[in-house]
Amino acid sequence: MHMANELISMPVAAGTIAAAAGAVGWLCRKVRSELLSEKAALMGILGAFVFAAQMVNFQLPLMPGTSGHLIGAVFLSVALGPALAAVVLSSVVIVQCLLFQDGGLLAIGCNIINIAIVPSFVGFAVYRLIAARPGNNIRFYAGAMAGSIASVLAGSVLVVIEAKVSGVLLIPAGVFLATMAGVHLIVGVMEGIITIAVLGYLRSVRPDLIEGLSANGAIFSRRAALAGIAALTIITGMGFSLLASDKPDGLEWSYAERPDQPDFRPVVENLDSRIHKADEIHAQIALMPDYSVRTVSDEHSASAGWTSLAGIAGSMVCMGLIWLIGRGLVRRSAGPQGQKANNASRIP
Question: Which residue of 104, 267, 297, 334 could cross-link 338, Cys pair, CB 3.0 to 4.6 Å?
Fold first, then answer.
């Protein structure tokens, strides 16, 4: 659901970049008082996993011409809380954009808001409304499913609003909204299934990796559980990413490209030359556009090994960046007494 530059106008780009920067800065200040040093490593590893998982586009059931991918907002919110989840996902979105040209350079503010900030808080609110206490299995998983659907739908609605305000739609906003909501309802269900599977793993091996649960009944040590997530990240980035569907994702299918409908015409038009110039600049500065190596010409395609390399490299960059952010927030929040509390809170 990463927005391209063509979906927005320059004023919307400037406004959303400013709003996203302000929101992320405020969230970083907010979490300082509650962030323990042990969370920095967890943030980095979970962020790397979400990056790798987002590379795997899955074909949508009932819609053979389109695909979707995990957002991970509810998964991260349940494990870290919504504020930290939004910070982690914002970091992932920035890495995706700057290194891999995933999402428009001018649309980075929209993507941080639509993928990281709003889905984290909306999804977590719905999850908490249903789950109440994470110890109840049925309510926990029902809340994770409902929260996942709500988080994806919230992001899709924002895309419609931003495109409408930008004045680039060639069809009524209501029609675009109905299309986006229908497609992303299916994406949300798939997101919920994946979220439940991963959260179920965490609950079974190390319950305290989920916010609000204790370590009682843990099968693995904290270090072993984190190592398991790291291993899954490597497998996903190197292997599963090669199995990703080549069909357009739900957003692209909704407005730009429908392989299953040859007569379909894009429903967005953006004539601002600055938008297209930004695309050209972005293509030049991104190290591995579209998660691959730059090819000499359109006649030569890169080998699949470059996709695996992009998966590993991107995961490592996300892990390192998010860990540094977490450590920086811990150091800024903890004086001598705070540091003692951080040290005392570490769980083997």
Answer: 334
